[in-house]
Amino acid sequence: MAQVPNLDNAPINLKSIRDQSQKELITILKNIRGKKCLVIDPKLGGSLSLIVQSSLLKEHGAELRHLNAEPVQTDCTKVVYLVRAQLDLMKFICSHIHNDISKGIQREYFVYFVPRRAVVCEKILEEEKIHHLLTIGEYPLYLIPLDEDVLSFELDVASKEHLVDGDTTSLWHIAKAIHKLEFSFGLIPNVRAKGKASVRVADILNRMQSEEPVNTSEQMGVPEINTIILLDREVDMITPMCSQLTYEGLLDEFLGINNGAVELDSSIMGVQQEGKKIKVPLNSSDKLFKEIRDQNFEVVVQVLRQKATSMKQDYTEMQTTNQTVSELKDFVKKLNSLPEMTRHINLGQHLTTFTSKPSFLARLDMEQTLVEAESYDICFEYIEEMIHKQEPLINVLRLLILFSITNSGLPKKNFDYLRRELLHSYGFEHIATLNNLEKSGLLKKQETKSNWITIKRALRLVVEDTDTANPNDISYVFSGYAPLSIRLVQHAIRSGWRPIEEILKLLPGPHSDIKRGGFSSSPSLDSLNGSLHNSDKIVDGRRSLVLVVFIGGVTSAEISALRFLSAQEGMAYDIIVATTKIVNGSTLTETFVEKLG
């Protein structure tokens, strides 16, 4: 199955976006005649695999290499670097070229920055006296379709940059990506934003529209995207710190999904090749995965069991009775789905080895206690014990962040004590990590009484007796906790944010609500309470679209909850998600980790 996801069923033409990016890259290669060595920044490698097959790059005369400290081994006289604008990567390029010069190797060098060039990087190339040897260009890759309803800006550390370093470069990048979408699908008339970064992106977007306007005349027709909802990760740091309980969410928590695939030992997938790793693609092209990805894992186990049993019965019938040709045909059709079934039975079985561990179940209990925020001492002692047992630091920090946010910080005595214990247990080099978490407000001393209980009750975030098999609420993705971020989206779509204005004020950052362009005739979200207005239907009978943008990352479970909302009866919208990165609690916490020395 191809790594490049199939986008044929996307609610808007995402294929055109991908084709455009592919075309731009091929044009760069075509313009450099003859054979060339394409040296790719390893972080970009995964992103590119979702846009273009490596065979296509080779067809255009490119030898492929990953960029690292080692000099490039190639016979090509032309070397093309495709890199993000990062200082450490510039150092690699400089050392490569110096190495060639010292050996008397003559080559032509090209550096293409993704998505745009940066003055600081060029300054390094000038200081190293190689700038004049380079042809410099840009490859404007701002947005990558990961699946038919998910786009990624591929900005791994956006949350940390914004919260800790005060660096807002990523916000310009996000606005630019959205503005590029508008040139394809029309100006988005309604913009809702919550959080410092989101409100800033909404402002930049408006500035871009005034400097480089998208045509809003009548001939353009109704814009394909009716509303954009921008949310800062900071607004809801509770959700990502909880363990996801959907099938896709658990795959990410335990095996790590990268660029729409998991990499694991071949033995797990029933392939006997000693020590060999294999990549298993996970996207909607896999029909069975599409069916089960968003379900609670408890249910997935039952679904796979049923499918296997039914196939076994069919097989037995085949052997014992005379079948008509059409019955045979049906059976063969079912057999076609066997590889997918085997794949997910293997993955599911492997996941069960993690989910059945007492330590995992104890952790889920503790997360529930933290979210309910009613037993402070029990939580404190649990985290203290984790530190003394020297459990993985990331696991401790995840719970600590959850503890700090639901309590609006820890009393000074407890805060100082846990901080000291952490440094004693894991080493003083982690003081920089703790400072990052404090600076970003994820870990702090308690100054005011927590308002989490008010928020939790007002938005009905803890749902008793959640039915995971036949869910009627988004809380099924965490078996009883409804993600705060998605509740906000649900309110924005159903009745607007006005009725929950007071609750919004209790959450981090400002919020804004802007109407743009000459679309006074298109109904605002406030008037849409789930019923479908005729003017809201796009001409060819498709539903109107809401683009939900997460600045700082989104989890698979939240995407599942949005898909669940979109599939509800009486829902007037299709939902597309755009995010800086797909994250889980561990990968998000890791971006704040910084070791001294």
UniProtKB/TrEMBL annotation:
<dbReference type="InterPro" id="IPR027482">
    <property type="entry name" value="Sec1-like_dom2"/>
</dbReference>
<comment type="similarity">
    <text>Belongs to the STXBP/unc-18/SEC1 family.</text>
</comment>
<dbReference type="Pfam" id="PF00995">
    <property type="entry name" value="Sec1"/>
</dbReference>
<dbReference type="InterPro" id="IPR036045">
    <property type="entry name" value="Sec1-like_sf"/>
</dbReference>
<dbReference type="InterPro" id="IPR043154">
    <property type="entry name" value="Sec-1-like_dom1"/>
</dbReference>
<dbReference type="InterPro" id="IPR001619">
    <property type="entry name" value="Sec1-like"/>
</dbReference>
<dbReference type="InterPro" id="IPR043127">
    <property type="entry name" value="Sec-1-like_dom3a"/>
</dbReference>
<protein>
    <recommendedName>
        <fullName>ATVPS33 vacuolar protein sorting 33</fullName>
    </recommendedName>
</protein>
